[in-house]
Amino acid sequence: MSNPLLNDRFAENVGIIEGEVMTINGTINKTLLMLFMLVISASYTWMLTLQGFVDKAQMLGYAGAFVALVSIIAMYFTKKASGIWAVIYSVAEGFFLGYLSVFFESLYAGIVPQAIAGTFAAMFSMLALYRTGVIKCTDKFRAVIFTAMMSVFLIYLIQIVASFFGRSIPQIFTASPIGIGFSAVVVLIASFGFIMDFDFIEKASQRMAPKYFEWMGAIGLMTSIVWLYVEILNLLLKINSRN
Length: 243
Description:
This protein is mainly α. Helices cover 75% and strands 0% of the residues.
């Protein structure tokens, strides 16, 4: 999920006089490094599953999801250690995505490459819309997207709690037209989250934020990529299950 707390005001009072400062290129390089580490760890749990070590891959996947969440929360309280949390997040999230991806791929061959292509197509589309000024990250835009994200989170939370009692929210988590429509809306919301990430990176670099803000910007982009990828996987699963 995108990081709504990482906004242009987040870096307002962190400009520095001396020392290295945040740059857009530096943020891009750190994002690519995080993506590389994620792919490596994801490949590991993918291969474990293919080799028959499903229990081990599952354990790593669940543990990775938990550690990734903890690292994101910890980053907000220890910003100067963002580089450390970024590495931990990348590896841990990779373990989770590797296990999740091979599971989806076993259900419908080719679904993972489609989700990867869709994720990066959406990201670069949002970048183009942001750079051309078609979509501006205004306070109103941020408030709407933040509200939408929190609404999705609340729906997922209710579904998790309901599942403990053998219940489920009607329709939206099925392959029905309503369920597919819900997933499509969530994919759209996740895509708009990139606009907030791009705005944070641009504004923080303009204010000459400290160098460690590059890691924070990279983490923001990575969480958006991961969330969108998972949501596209879910959407494709629903569509394929109807065929």
